[in-house]
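Good morning N.,

You mentioned wanting to compare the apo and holo forms, so I went ahead and generated the holo version with magnesium ion. This is what I fed in:
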Amino acid sequence: MSYRIETLITRDELAEGIKRVADEINRDYKGRSVHLICIIKGGVFFMTELSKYLDMDVTMDFMAVSSYGSDTVSSGVVKIIKDLDEPIEGRDVIIVEDIIDTGYTMEYLMELLRDRKPASLKLCAMLDKPSRRVTDIKPDYLGFTIEDKFVVGFGLDYDQKYRNLNYIGAVIFDE
Ligand code: IMP
Ligand code: MG
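and this is what came out, ligand included:
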């Protein structure tokens, strides 16, 4: 199927949104330290950019969960591909994710991480597609709410491509 990519959020808008999210976290966690859990691969660009603007002590870990493969719809099946390197018990944890769609992935992950007894657990997402939600998941920190479009760039892929784009684009499939 042929398609093109249309700009949805420009590089400048994205930078501004990420700084705004960092300001909120700086305000809420003043005087504490945060442990960021980046969901790879998609969350990497967002986490590195976001963390540059955080002014408290920041530690990081990475986790990989199964995603869509080359398809564009969620299966509801979530699998851990890479677990955390360190325990999170007693720490103030923020999950950093690229996008919340159905919410299946985060529902599963937040429950799993809550069982490991962090002092607190919050969810920070770069993008949210609330119209697609089938769970009760809501990000505590959010960059942008978007319409029901398949998007790429700044970590997000279509068939593993376009993660390196410095903006968010919508994939428009030709009829
Ligand atoms: P959920 O479990 O349905 O909320 O799906 C979340 C995961 O699906 C995200 O972490 C992404 O990896 C992937 N995903 C959802 N929507 C998009 C999109 O528009 N573009 C690229 N990946 C997406
Ligand atoms: Mg993801």
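Residues 42, 67-68, 74, 97-105, 150-151, 156 surround inosinic acid (ligand 1) (CB under 6 Å).

Happy to go through it together on a call whenever suits you.

Best,
F.
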